[in-house]
TrEMBL record:
<keyword id="KW-0833">Ubl conjugation pathway</keyword>
<feature type="active site" description="Glycyl thioester intermediate">
    <location>
        <position position="134"/>
    </location>
</feature>
<dbReference type="Pfam" id="PF00632">
    <property type="entry name" value="HECT"/>
</dbReference>
<dbReference type="GO" id="GO:0061630">
    <property type="term" value="F:ubiquitin protein ligase activity"/>
</dbReference>
<protein>
    <recommendedName>
        <fullName>HECT-type E3 ubiquitin transferase</fullName>
        <ecNumber>2.3.2.26</ecNumber>
    </recommendedName>
</protein>
<keyword id="KW-0436">Ligase</keyword>
<dbReference type="GO" id="GO:0000209">
    <property type="term" value="P:protein polyubiquitination"/>
</dbReference>
<dbReference type="GO" id="GO:0016874">
    <property type="term" value="F:ligase activity"/>
</dbReference>
<keyword id="KW-0808">Transferase</keyword>
<feature type="domain" description="HECT">
    <location>
        <begin position="1"/>
        <end position="142"/>
    </location>
</feature>
<dbReference type="InterPro" id="IPR000569">
    <property type="entry name" value="HECT_dom"/>
</dbReference>
<dbReference type="InterPro" id="IPR035983">
    <property type="entry name" value="Hect_E3_ubiquitin_ligase"/>
</dbReference>
<dbReference type="InterPro" id="IPR044611">
    <property type="entry name" value="E3A/B/C-like"/>
</dbReference>
Amino acid sequence: RKEFVDLYVNYIFNESVRKPYEDFMQGFLRGCPARSWKMFLPVELQVLLLGHATYDWRLLQQNVIYRNYQESHQTIKNFWTVFFRLPEEKKKKFLAFLSGSDRIPALGLEYLRFTIEDPRWENPDNFLPRVSTCSYILSLPR
């Protein structure tokens, strides 16, 4: 019985998926050559592929560029007051809304610059904030 179970488990987990796995691995290695990975430690590779998981939200605030706003404008003050009162998970969701990912890019927050702009809509109360994730622009109505 033990031999049967061992052979069956080997078949299910190894033999039955060998061809699809080899096809996947061949395609994956075309885009991400494994030889290049050898220069990274596992932790460094994880950061490179997934981004950082430690957040310094004040640094994010320092790197903002304001367009059609001054940092002293009440809308901006209100935004940051509300942002810093959010629980950590909601801040991460904002980061995902802004950038498409809830992780910090590999270079770190000091290199993540985003823009908060006033879209200058005629009736700002009729609009919600919008974001351009490719260019990290948050359109924040007054």
